[in-house]
Batch of 3 targets.
Target 1
Amino acid sequence: MTILFLTMVISYFSCMKAAPMKEASVRGHGSLAYPGLRTHGTLESLTGPNAGSRGLTSLADTFEHVIEELLDEDQDIQPSEENKDADLYTSRVMLSSQVPLEPPLLFLLEEYKNYLDAANMSMRVRRHSDPARRGELSVCDSTSEWVTAAEKKTAVDMSGATVTVLEKVPVPKGQLKQYFYETKCNPKGYTKEGCRGIDKRHWNSQCRTTQSYVRALTMDNKKRVGWRFIRIDTSCVCTLTIKRGR
């Protein structure tokens, strides 16, 4: 399992060909920025003759360092008072020259962590903790896929303004496409008429797609280009309302 996981990580970084996000003390629109690109500017300034001189840092020194960083359970990130939506930030954006073949790396790391936790259990406990053996089903059916900026076209940023999502991001050796890993309720699933396992005699239920903020290269109505937090579909949740008159 460990060898399989490392193989997936290597293939993941091989197709990504993009720089990671780094900490930046930017107020208002969050604290993450892609290195080598200015936070704000015009589209011409990003694709001009000097664009190639802004070198991008390497992805990571070693794969072990990346895994250790992302799986660090002792790292407790608290949202600031100025930005109370910090718990909605996700890592569902990738810059790549081709459609990613795997879910975001953090999803794979979470699965690997669950595997390590299960490896420490006894065989009997492991059998009983398997969701398939317990007959567990999701309350709402969902579907996840990578979508491009060309499919999204526009999005809503943190200030409530509608911005244009740029399809390509300029880098020293050309351009990379922006991909977004979106999760939404499955319209063809068995829960399109209501949530699974809900007592319909007492409750009205509905599976509803919810959104979170991700960082993306966008352009506002004044043609200003910059990295902003926008909303994308990230989950499918069950909403309940009690039936009246009972």
Target 2
Amino acid sequence: MALGAKKAFAEEGGRWAHLAFIGCDASGNAGQERVRRGILIASIALPVTTELALDRFVRAYETRVSPQEVTVLKPESFPPEKQLLALSPAKEFAARSI
């Protein structure tokens, strides 16, 4: 979606043509490569759920105890958040407004 939005804004031109776009597919090589090449400014790496789901299923099957209803998985930023802060124009604004 981020690539489609970026393309649409670029075609529109004007002040929207230089927006930064963030993807949500850095779990695979494609998302990280788009960040490295500068196509996206960042991407979110979502944890793979298959192994966790299978482990929970097997444990529930073997123990006859239902797994907890909700499991929260922590996504990770690519590049790491500290690197993103270094790129942020808001950081410069915050430093000037103190």
Target 3
Amino acid sequence: MPASKLRSLASQAMSLDAANLREILPEKRYTLIVALLNHMRVRTRDDLAEMFIRRTEEGLPSSAANKSFAPDMGSHLRRMLRSQIIAG
């Protein structure tokens, strides 16, 4: 299923409350719920990766040489984590 369709279904599910969800046919209800769960899982992974990168960058020594190295390290970590998340 295309990512844009999943995002659309997830946003539709977020806009509904439990009473409205009960009124929807079970097949569509389950599809909306699964899309929402997938969206929340992806967002949680992204947030965790960002927190990890921030913590890692904070732990680097603060010498002048490392100040230019830290952004490169952060972008490298982001690429590495994203590739792991996509693969996993």
